[in-house]
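Forwarding the complex inputs:
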Amino acid sequence: MKTVLCSKTGSVFSIVLNRPEVINAFNVQMRDELYMSLGSACDDPTVKVIAISGAGERGFCAGADLGEFGSAPSIATAREVRWERDLWGMFLSVKKPVIVALHGYVIGSGLEIACLGDIRIASRDAVFSMPEAALGLLPAAGGSQTLARVVGQSRAVEILQMGIKIDADKAKNIGLVHEVIPRKNLHDRLLSVSNSLASINPSLLAAVKRSVNEGMDLSLEGGIRLEKRLAASSIQAL
Amino acid sequence: MVVSYSKNIATVKLNRGSHHNRINENMAFELQDAFGHLGQNPSVRVVILSGVGEYFCKGTDFPPISSQLSNVSYESTLEMLRVSDVVASIRQPVIAVINGDAIDQGMELTLACDIRIASTSAMFGLTQMSKGYIPWDGGSQRLPRLIGQGRAMEMILNSRIIGVDEALHMGLITSEVPPEKLENIGLLMASTIASHGPTATQYLKEAVLKGSDLTLRQGLRLEADLSFLLQTTSDRSEGIKSFLERRKPEYKGE
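Prediction (whole assembly, two chains):
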């Protein structure tokens, strides 16, 4: 693998987006490699936490590699491929916590990947934006759905429609990231958050993640029923 | 109500200044009619909704209840006065440029817009409870979705009026602006959006609004389908071409 680097330290599986020469722009190869990496992180029973970051100084991910746009033979084929390797759907089905460390440019699909994670840590120099509409595009990695669920509809619409840039402080303020720290501490912080989660019983982590995420898609009554069921089975397992 | 156009931006202003821009049957009819038409007008890319004078809109001027035969027929009066759904349902993004107080139905009207910015002098509130009834133009549904259930419940139950700082803090509005700059900043925001691909902009609105009523997985389906549909438009290739050629895009809405 080239565009994505994987490593395992203890029970933490690290995935590093690795096209630093183009600020980790997301291309077809990266999609395929991320799909495989994420798949193996899910399948490996010794992995408890998944940590995602971007290589290089300039940023986490500058968005989709526009050079490859329209390279699919037809729209029908593009659609077929989209659902054949449903990377974004796979993110939704990951039971383990996904922690994302963000620095520098976090643009377009970079921000969408971040929104598919569970905990977002940013360095002070991080800049966020969704420029798709300005380019006549739609976000296609779930951004029009996940962003509103993370920061609320009001702010999501502003970010999506205006294409505005958001700095790390504002991102923290609106709940887009959980923590803002100096760049030099980002890597260590990613590991320490990951390790502290890895010390928790993984079935509890999975139950809580499922209860919150699936619960968001249910009626309140249905969500409470789900919670009760998950809690009962975790108590039973004690 | 007055409607004006500047290039591809339409501005709708509530214009009953002497009645604090309160909505009566006449204004409701004009709003429904105007937004119905704007939604169908392909040369309009963004709509601004604002008020003439000191206030945005301080609520409703109800026709006297005595003129009604029964409670049942008052329901149809309310139906006639409802304006939020038609504002929310048009294809183009709507920016609420809130020049002053937005109270009761006036606030409900801003909730139907996609982006809200407000003058530092504006106050917000859904105070229907203090008058013995409940919000009836979408407020009890849209406010919790925008600012969260706990905050919405507290505001509505207490009929509490808030200022811009608090509105900004809770995410009800996305920026507060000094009154003298408000109109210009609203136009600037509108022209930024109007410079984007019009089909992409409309699909984005659809993806976000319809998506919030779907499960996340269904929402991702909707987003992907709209995204593939967008690939059939010439605007989409123009957007990418202009970016790669480092020039400004020229969108045609086709």
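The two ends of chain A are 40 Å apart (CA to CA).
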